[in-house]
Amino acid sequence: MKFNIDHYIASILQWILNIALIILSIVLSIFLINETITFIQYIFSTKEYTSYKLVESIIVYFLYFEFIALIIKYFKSNYHFPLRYFIYIGITALIRLIIVSHEEPIETLLYAGAILVLVIALYISNMRDLRKE
Where are the transmembrane segments (predicted)? Predict the structure, then answer.
């Protein structure tokens, strides 16, 4: 029986990746819980918070949620990251960036253009998946 070094190395690297992703999902879950607590504090606080702060908190919450969903999907789909999840995360991150930093109109326009490009990429990706079915 011949020892296949390539298969052995790939197997070890896959285990390292899986362990790292499990650790990352635990850390992200802790951040998600922390963001939930912060969000609840915003809602029930007597202080006046700007709507930007509240919306930013909600979008950061969804970013953590999307990353955790991406890791779950990775393990459920036989160690494969679907492209559309990365596009969702990119769109959400750009929306957060527009909400947080909207002082420069040109930058906001560029971010909106980047969102448009990502939406088009998502459409193309979904069309390809629909054709497979």
Answer: 12-34, 54-73, 85-102, 108-125
Q: Which residues contact 9 (CB under 8 A, 6 or more apart)?
A: none
Q: Which own/partner pairs from 82-87 qualify as long-range (CB within 8 Å, at least 24 positions apart)?
A: 83/125, 84/122, 84/125, 84/126, 87/118, 87/121, 87/122, 87/125
Backbone angles phi, psi at 48, to 5 degrees: -90, 115
Task: Please give the model's pTM, rounded to 2 decimal places.
Answer: 0.75
CB 122 within 8 A of CB 129: no
Residue 117 CB neighbours (<10 A): 14
Residues sharing a CB contact under 8 Å with residue 60, sequence separation 6 or more, in sequence order: 35, 96
> pLDDT digit of tens for each residue in the chain (133 aa)?
556 888 889 899 999 999 999 999 999 999 999 988 888 888 887 777 677 777 888 888 888 988 999 999 999 988 888 888 899 999 999 998 898 887 889 999 999 999 999 999 999 988 876 776 6
